[in-house]
Amino acid sequence: MKRFYELGQSVYFWLTGIVYLVVMECIALYYQYVMEFFPCALCVQVRAWVVGAIISAAVSVYFKATFWIRFVGLSVTICFMSGALYTSWYAWGVENGTVISSCSIGAGFPAFMPLDQWIPFFFGANGPCGQSPEMWLGLSMVETLLITIGVPLIVLIAQWLLHIPHAIVSIIRFASS
Q1: For a pLDDT cut of 70, what percent of the chain falls above it?
Q2: Which of 65, 125, 129, 162 has the highest count of CB atoms within 10 angstroms of its CB?
Q3: Domains of the chain, CATH where assigned
């Protein structure tokens, strides 16, 4: 466990995560612009969550030596990845008919952050919900997302849990001084 905790302090841990997430985004863009499977509102929302995770992981790389910034960065990255997983789960429900959705054309971003208007080539939603393309091993893109987001999220949560004892010790030291 100590070795795994130390791995979370490594620049390679964070850079591997960033590269992994960037590759996910590149695959999505490949499917959009080369294969012409246009993303729906839920798909571009997953993209936004993943971009948030990339940014928070990049901040964590920069401040990896500072425990509290790394801990907060880890927590924020988990929040972004959880948002991506939840949105993927919702999209899976729409795709399989277990969720009745009024998903329509348009990205559905809030007015204070219209990513689809700011960066339309990346966050524009031009496809219908519930129809994701088939990827590897006969899985749909949404099913693949559940795996490719879920597994790294488990690793991040394990890292977070290993940071908790260090956070408690740090708080106790601060309180006793």
Answers
A1: 97
A2: 125
A3: 2-100+126-176 (1.20.1550.10)
